[in-house]
């Protein structure tokens, strides 16, 4: 606040109110530092944010520190196998307790003055503080944490939105067969996109850009799944689209018979917790998002031993996921600044799958490594263009960018619900 | 605005009003981020700014993207050989249309979603937008562009200053003989000076610093052309100055006979479009700004086949130029931040001159490459000093820094004329 | 001011008033850019700041430029051997006169336009300014400078705090025997800590963190000198502490007999000039802060030819010092930004001591090079943690962090005394 003058809240509110439905956001909502701080406070500070996967901390004493905007948190598994999260800040002089990434601990010991916390956050030892010092007043500040089907969501607010239960109710059964909780992280990639986090999310919510920009992804992905202009198709495209519709008819019958939930569930405008899920057909040979569209891992995830399971696709506020029979790809996006966003990608495989034996790491990761790099380039182009006074909010396609329009509407309503 | 609090305009106005004539500007006019943004909006946003040369885009379909502060524009030659400029921002989701530097296109195709524009800015194709989408509402935003004697000036304002006609009336005939429109760019250098753009311009408008800092330039340049204290000269300097005055008498007679305009024309305080031009004698052997003061290029520019044509010197708001019989050097300065300025230098030669045959590139570029590096160092020293609270606006020499005083007065008046 | 909106002063004042005694400061006092600027203006701009040592400029014409926050100053020894300091800004166009670090000059000549100053700051020459130019109005702006026992303090204010006399009265006699004025700088290290300058100073004012973080320093340093919880000691620690108390009884008798001042003098809350000094016992063999606790230099400093002289420890606003019989270590801290602080360390030895002969440089510098690196890591951890909204001001130990509580109280009172 101190570094941004007073009228910020009102200015942001005016800007938010000026958003024109059906159009991309006013420039400053993407580019302003004040808005970025407001986004960190509001969107990332008061909503359920995807932070990782259960198998990031598979054993008691496993600890992982991650940053959500300016906030560092520790996620850990305590001695009773319970997952917990805390602010990564010592209650004494504020030092970071745990270094970035993963580590293993008995207790949490602050490196500065050895204040020592149990894994439930209680202050167990504080040297030199005197005989009358009440340690119970100085526990670690807890952070709300939920494990939903092996995906971890944290909420920094003391009053987390209750509708996380709806995400759990929809997603838990859909992911059950894949047993992601007992999977392992085969590979993790951090990539910085030179753009606002909302551009990262917009980019992910449409496949309008796929055909021209993602030749490799397009082998396993049906861009038409994300909408198309029915009157703008060439004859060839019409034929392809009709074939895809036919395929869905068959697949959905199969999925229904095999008891695999597939229907699209959208939980967006009007709710704090924004998500969408649907089971999608994988293109080509239909098995996995790999260069040859075949499964990359010999051992399927969990009980996912059936063919044609497709891709359980799940979007969230700062995340997107593709869960397939042989592996899952989990993406989380964290704001680093108005014009910088971290995209963290994790490839999950069965815990017993061995690299080099059961899967080739390059084959497993090739499609999304390539696609991530292409998307980073596009997000950078969008951000740089929007920084120019020549930018005016442009029209979203009602066919291929409806989800972006809804994401923008959701963003506006969440900011307004939180005082802007 | 959002990131800078409210009272900015008033504060800047106060600061501008506090400028003391005959003295350098108050520190914050050089160092403040708020002022820098105001400069971008006002000076670079509402005046005619030098952006390049006609021969940057010699053929239909040639495109060049450049940044003017936070604004990226595209300059191109359309299929009818007409020069045009647009904001480099797609009307759809704001992505940069064209990468930095030069490229060749048939149409302008946005890399993000393939919105496609004709070279006149009309939106020719926008996939998936639906049958009722009115493309005519989504053309590229044009930018005013003028070609004056082969030098390009752009104005980002919708209401460009009309006095560009005076620049055209004065400069067009002076440059006619050199035919810069049909020259070619033999070399281009981008150099970042660690100082405010106004310090870059001040540095260029005096040669008080030349004798001690530019030994190489001084071989072909008469520092006395830019003023001297008549009472402070040593006997040797007096003799040199008298010799130069005699030389001008002879040269001017010759220039008059040969119909080469030479008189100084100053169009500074009181006008939006700030320029000064004069034909100068080249020192030494008098041919060109090269290490040995001889022409560096065998083929003269245009019809510049006469000896002793000297140096047509032209200053502008963000530019300076030296046009000689064998080559021209065109400098443009663009603000990158309060303390960073891009200086772009282009060496122009006859389109048919071949490197290695008709000119040696190192000989052609040596003087100004060296001089630019020296100037960058000086601008950095000035900027760092001005950042210190120990700085007070200092007195300009009435003899050697009159042009700086006028530039500062022009700056103050232009900011005031635009609401500060 | 311009870049920070209006209500800054009030906001900072509110923040400062909210500081809770016995606790670390509110986060924004460590992290805000506005507060950092206020600190530069107030603490570094209106107090006596340690800037170096007399033997940085041993000869007439020796010049040293250093930065105090955004201010660059020149410290020099003039032709009459008088030490002087000036703003490092030319009175003409504001260029930096002198490059960073040390140089030797006859006069101070501005590299830009050769304005030339005598070493007393008078403008001796200003070419092209005209016959009626009054050079006496354009001397260099002086900076107050004091040499206290060979340590240099500067004050940027025109009204420097008078209580520097108390520092002089206490410290001058304590340092006399070491003759630091005629020592030499054997080595100098610049290290950037990734934290606010107040965290650098807090870190230095306690040894609570030493046992776990400074194994090498702990060989020559008694952490107990900086406080301990008497009721929290193990039996072993109790025995050690009692032994140390006994040692002090013997040492102090010896110091009294030998006329070596040793008593702790504290001059902190309630005064502009904050300092504390005390003669400490060196642990181990008791000679010096070296890996084997023996003297590193064969020739003692000045007349420091007696054994068991211990360590004359001196803290200041931005400095700490250890003066031992064979060498002194002088630390100064300069703010580079809200989250960056320069720690400059100088190792002083007798001017005639020869490296390789009288001392081994690695042995001389090992302990504090290692300790500085360890401290930089800790300051970085503290700063990063405090940036998180999870930080709350934590309780200082009344036993081991009393000096921090006093430093924080001093800081609050100084800011309030200066308008916040």
Automatic annotation (TrEMBL), chains A, B, C:
TM stretches of this protein: none
Domain annotation Rieske: ranges: 48-154
Gene Ontology molecular functions: 2 iron, 2 sulfur cluster binding; iron ion binding; oxidoreductase activity
Cofactor: Fe cation
Origin: domain of life: Bacteria
Pfam families for the chain: Rieske (PF00355), Ring_hydroxyl_A (PF00848)
SUPFAM superfamilies: Bet v1-like, ISP domain
Swiss-Prot/TrEMBL keywords: 2Fe-2S, Iron, Iron-sulfur, Metal-binding, Oxidoreductase
PROSITE patterns tied to this protein: RIESKE
Name of the protein in question: Rieske 2Fe-2S family protein
Species the sequence originates in: Primorskyibacter flagellatus
